[in-house]
Amino acid sequence: MLDIKTSLRTTLTQKQELVRDYQSFADRVNDPEVSKMFKHFAEAEALHATQIKNKLNDLT
Fold first, then answer.
1. What is the pTM of this model?
2. Quick check: 38 and 18 in contact, CB under 8 A?
3. 3-state SS, residue 16
4. How far apart are CA 28 and CA 47, in angstroms?
5. How far is CA 35 from CA 15, 16, 22, 38, 60, in A?
6. What is the DSSP string of 38-52?
7. What pLDDT band is residue 17 in, cutting at 50, 70 and 90?
8. Greater confidence, 46 or 1?
9. CA-to-CA distance for 51 and 56, rounded, in angstroms?
10. The dihedral of CA 38, 39, 43, 44: what is its sign?
11. Which residues, 6+ apart, have CB-to-CB distance to 53 below 8 Å?
12. CA distances from 43 to 2, 36, 39 (A)
């Protein structure tokens, strides 16, 4: 059986890395439309990370 806290921590790390990646991509691309898209992706992943953090806090 999969441990919930471990899976949430792993997923949280992945989401945080995606936020950093998307923000970096947004800052480095020369296309404003693509930059905006990456910023949107970063915001969505940050929301997911916040939800995961909240769930982890509830379980602790």
1. 0.89
2. no
3. helix
4. 22
5. 19, 18, 9, 5, 37
6. HHHHHHHHHHHHHHH
7. very high
8. 46
9. 9
10. negative
11. 12
12. 28, 11, 6
